[in-house]
Amino acid sequence: MRILAIHAHPDDIEFLMGGTLALLAPAHELTLATFTNGDCGSATHTREEIGRIRPAEAAAAAAMLGARYVCLMQHDLELEFRDGLRRETAELLRRTAPDVVMTASPQDYMADHEMASALVRDACFNAPVPLYDTRRPDAAPPLAKVPCLLYADPIELTDHLGRPVEPMFAVDVSAAMETKTALLACHASQREWLRKHHGIDAYIETMKQWSAARGARIGTAYAEGFRQHLGHSFPRDNVLAALLGDKVRKLWP
Ligand SMILES: [Zn+2]
Hints:
By secondary structure, the protein is α/β, with parallel strands linked by helices. The protein is built from eight helices and eight strands. α1 (12-24) crosses α5, α2 packs antiparallel against α5 (177-185) and α5 runs antiparallel to α7 (203-218).
């Protein structure tokens, strides 16, 4: 299968879906993408410098999974639901032609994440529409069908009001934690930045705490939660359960 994981910033994918992607990587064709180049993610570098450093870190993490990395080169804190970016996101989907798309939670702690989620949801619906024109000279053909769309957990596993977000299912990633940790460690520039801005001292430890909290929900050491978009025209079968078997534990509905 072809799987596209796309989130707002470099390192979001690794935090929230890295373990699941590590489990899928050996048998499937993965593309990892970020909307932004992470160019507000530093207290020491210039925007230009950090905007070059972070895509390189994300590309290194993707390479560790044998995956392709694409950066849409948007700027941090500037993601908007606008026509040009809607078409660009649909073009990425057409070029990737994924069976499964994994993206940001519709409810999350900051606007770039929620905007990324909305843009990806929109593109999943639009990319198969034959008359939807991405206005690129080298445009890829429309998708054959709407892909399966999965939303990852939000940051800290809560929405912007601090309410817990209950996943529809969780993937036991205990066996993939070494790889997940190594993927996140590719983002060396962020350990220092997060300590200064968010007050998070231990970058890796935070990821492990969230993964452990999800693991506790399903009785495993570590897990990652997902919700599936089940609206009109979207596939409703649980593709990850078919791919990962008993590592996927259904919680609701
Ligand atoms: Zn982010």
